[in-house]
Every structure is written in C-alpha cells, then in structure tokens.
Amino acid sequence: MFRASVALGARRLSNGYLFACPRAAGARARRRYRPSGATCRLDVECRPSSYDEELREKTAHARAHFDGVATLPSRTETFESAREEFRMRAEFKVWHDGDRSYFAMCDSDRPKDPVEVVDFPMASARIRELMPELLREVTATETLRRKLFQANFLTTTTGDAVVSLLYHRQLDEDWEREAEAMRARLGIDVIGRARKQKLVLAKDFVTEKVLIDGKEFSYKQLEGSFTQPNAGIAAQMLAWARSAAVSDSPDVVAAATPRDANRDFLELYCGNGHFTIALAPLFRKCLATEISKSSVAAAHVNMAANGIDNVVTARLSAEELCDALDGGREYTRLKDIDLTTYDLSTVLVDPPRAGMGDEVSKFCARFDRIIYISCNPETLARDCKILGETHEIKRFAVFDQFPYTPHLESGALLVKRA
Ligand SMILES: C[S@@+](CC[C@H](N)C(=O)[O-])C[C@H]1O[C@@H](n2cnc3c(N)ncnc32)[C@H](O)[C@@H]1O
C-alpha cells in the first residue's frame, strides 16, 4: 500500500481515493492507491515516481488471483506504459460557474460535486493541447456553451482528433454553424450529441497507424465504439499476440514464421479487427466475430484498408458462434459462410471485464492454442480454471494499459496438453 499525501481541501471519494480540489487547494489532485476492489473513476493524478512500485504491486495482485486456481509460468512478461500522455481517449464533464466553464470529473456517488481537471497529463499530447483551446472556444460562444455538459476526446498518435460535445438541449443550425467554424479553427472533427440527435462534422472516427514487426497497419477507430485506450500498450499487445501465435517462448519477439500457415484462426470479441489484422497473415483463413454492429462495420473497413483478404467477419455473440460451430440453430448472419471449410487450431479471445464464462470457456477448450487477452485478471483466472483441465498456461503477460489505476490488462497463452 502506498502512502498518500493529503493536500489541503482533500476529500475522500466513495472509491477510496483521496482528492484535493484544485480550485480549493491550488494543488494537484491526489488519491490513495487501493489495488483491490474499487473501480477507479477519478484518475487525476499522474505519479511517474511511483510507477514502478505500482506496477509491481498490480502484477503481484493479478498473479494472486491464480493461486489455487491455475498454474502460471514463473516468468511474467511485463509491458510498461509511457508514464505520461498515454491515453488516446478521455471524457470530462463540462461545468459552468457564472461566466467560467471548466472540465471536471465527478464521483459516481456525488454526481453534482465536481472536481475540476485543470490538466490531464495522462491524456495524449493532442488532448492536452485541445483541452484549453476547446474551453476558450466554448466560453467565447454562447451557442456552443449553452447546456453543454460533457466533452469526449478521441485522438491518435498521428494527431487525428474527434471531439464529441454532449448537450441537454436540441442542436440547431446556429449550433452547426458555430461548431463548423470551431472545427476549422482547431483542426478537429466535431460531433454534437443531444437526445435522439447526432450531428457529425465531418466524420465520427479517427485513423490510427500502428507499426507491428516492421509493418505499418492502419485502424479506423469509431467514436463511441470500443478502442484500446493506450496506443503504446495496444501496439505491444499486438506484437505479443503475434508472438504467442507462433511460439511458446517469451523470447521469440517477432512472428517471422507462421506456425500454422495451413490452418485457420478464430477470434471472438474482435471489435474493430484490432488483433485480427495483425494475426491474419499468420494463418490460412480467419473467422472473426463480434456482437457490435458498428465495430463489425469498422472491422470490414480495416481489413480492406490493410489488404487483409483471408478474414471473414460476422456479427455474432461469442455464445451464438459456439452454438453455430457445434451445429446448433441456423443463423442468417452465417448464411454465406461455410463453417465446415475451417480447420481452426488457434483461438484469440478478448472479452469484456466479465470474461468468457463457463459456456464459452468450455467451447474454447477444444482448440490447440488459446490466446486470452483480458482486462480483468479475476475473470481470466476463473476461466483458466476451466481451461486448465485441458491446457497448460505457457506464457503470462501484463500490459499496463491503465497506469495509476488498479486496473491491469493481461494476456495468457494456453497450449493443449499432449
Ligand atoms: C475488450 S473489447 C475488445 C475488442 C477488440 N478485441 C479490440 O482489441 O479492440 C471486447 C469486445 O467484445 C464485444 N462483446 C461484448 N460482449 C460480447 C459477446 N457476448 N459476444 C461477442 N462480442 C462481445 C464488445 O462489443 C467489444 O468490442
């Protein structure tokens, strides 16, 4: 447990963190680090000096979930984050106080009690640059400011940016004109959202470029859909997954030689094709599924943009795909796909925090290699208990996607026992 400095004006939030309101104390916000249990909502303080210690503690905590549940390899492959400017997306409340507007975060238990965010060193350089510029624009133009309650930033390492502005009122032509002028001045795309309204000026996505094993891939990332928040870590996760697809050894970094070039790859929870695009070249054919319609659409665009032509993507829940592959009911969304032509040897899963659960875990146990990416070590360990009956965990990695929070992304390679 870390010592937390308590600044003047600090208050304890319901998640256990201590914060100082910068307006009251003129200080940076502070919190107490509490690795277990609490969900972290207000991650305001950047603490590079305690980064190493926090990551060590989070890693030990993640590994502890496996005690008595499944056997991990002794070595943890550790992927560290940049200490600052690592978050490509951020959401802030916008608070108005007389003539002044400011960015704020609120604890879920005290939604009317804002903590002002003056700067956010964890956010990408582009977000940090845009924050004061956006506030200046909004403060200067009543049409943009009136009933604005939230601003969401989505950026890339290449400087692309979409800012969504959320309002408690319907948006009209005046708003559109002013937003268009601001869009041109700031060099961003703007989305105006209100009840049953979404105005897009001029696009609702960014395009990220990622270099993996010497090759550049491009990713269309939709505003409002899932994207990996930490771009540096996301690239390291892709390289790790490629390496895990071909080798049981952590020492093989580049996936130069496809292991299963004559066999096929299945991906569940594929999102916008983030892992699919990087792993597809290692296999003969790939089947990737995902529940979100907009993410599947983005995945199609991303396959085409990267010249990936051996992937079929279908909008199906993981549970539906398990059912279909086991000869269950017929799915219209699979009518053009002949599942019998696939010789699936490797599966990659990247489920939400709830993990795969019993049904999907038992289904995955039939594959030779399982690459399991997880944002919740607790559910990863639970699912590994099932998979551990047939598979050995050959590799275990932690990716520090969320520095200065209790959260830790992890990856496990499970290989079927002979
Ligand atoms: C952690 S995200 C990973 C997305 C993708 N692998 C990536 O790296 O961007 C989890 C994804 O699972 C999808 N999802 C949630 N529940 C699902 C289910 N039951 N079946 C299939 N996909 C699901 C979400 O829409 C989301 O895109």
Automatic annotation (TrEMBL):
Keywords: Methyltransferase, S-adenosyl-L-methionine, Transferase, tRNA processing. The active site is at C375 (nucleophile), C375. InterPro entries: MeTrfase_TrmA_AS, MeTrfase_TrmA_CS, SAM-dependent_MTases_sf, TrmA_MeTrfase, U5_MeTrfase_fam. GO terms for cellular component: cytosol. GO terms for biological process: methylation; RNA modification; tRNA processing. The keyword Transferase applies. S-adenosyl-L-methionine binds at Q228, Y269, E290, D350. GO terms for molecular function: rRNA binding; tRNA (uracil(54)-C5)-methyltransferase activity, S-adenosyl methionine-dependent; tRNA binding. Pfam families: tRNA_U5-meth_tr. Belongs to the class I-like SAM-binding methyltransferase superfamily. RNA M5U methyltransferase family. NCBIfam families: trmA_only. This is Uncharacterized protein. The lineage of its organism: Eukaryota, Viridiplantae, Chlorophyta, Mamiellophyceae, Mamiellales.
